[in-house]
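Hi C.,

You asked whether I'd gotten around to modeling the 304-residue construct. I have! Everything is below, sequence then structure, no commentary in between.
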Amino acid sequence: MNHKALPPLNWLCTFEASARRLNFTHAAQELCLTQGAVSQQMRLLEDHLGVTLFKRLPRGLALTEEGQSYLPVVQDAISRLAAGTTELFSQSDNPPIKIRGSLSFFVHWLAPRLAEFKAYHPHIDIRYISNLWVKDIDDEDDLEIRWGNGRWPGLITHRLTWDELFPVCSPALADRLPIRGSADLAQHTLLHVLGYEEGWGYWLSMVGEGRVDPSRGMQFDTLLASLRIAELGQGVALGRTSMVDSLIKEGRLVVPLDQRVEAGESFYLVQRSGIELHPDTKLFADWLVEEAIRPVSAPLPDTL
């Protein structure tokens, strides 16, 4: 971005007020400036842009064609800046709960449950920021959703998922090239997720399948991307129960093999130890843990 081409913000605010009122004196009163200061800023702005924005008339002002075109641009920019500033930095008695976590977890686990929480607690706002890789929890984050083994020094953890690992693919792919045994995976593109210790190599080893090369296939930095590619029929993903339940129920994915391996890694709710949570944050954290242990309403089909 070429910042040198941008006029100073105070000039733009003065232009917006002057163009809206078509009177330098009235604009000066609105902005708590002198009429001379407003007039000088507008001449500086015109010199900066190399165009004339106002027609100086005996009884006021009129916008030139350039001024008429520029006004909505400036008004939109000022409105966006004001709205963004208010949204991000306004002080409130109920600041939003700041959560950092997996985008896959949000889309497949948290998002379908949020409506219920908001229905009971409409005053609580949530700001969810996705991350790809595990890092130290930020001082500005209230909570974190983290994938791993749950052993992180200095952090309090609450387990949210109890997963099994198993292959998933689209119904179309299963019909076109059936997977009747684990060896048939050699005929398919395996979809890998970077950063997961328990990937295809782990699953193939646990089911005793040595005829499939676990390094083959496509790699992605999120489970979300891997599952989407699987939905499109372009390969076989390694599903995790909590992440694929809804996709299977909706018929977007199927389970071609009844070979499930218990996952040693899970999603955890993480918070810093020794830090007292805001009451709203504690309420949300308690709700998350309760949701995690609530029984699933209906069982999933095991296989095709």
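If it helps when you're writing up: The first strand starts at residue 54 and ends at 57.

Thanks,
B.
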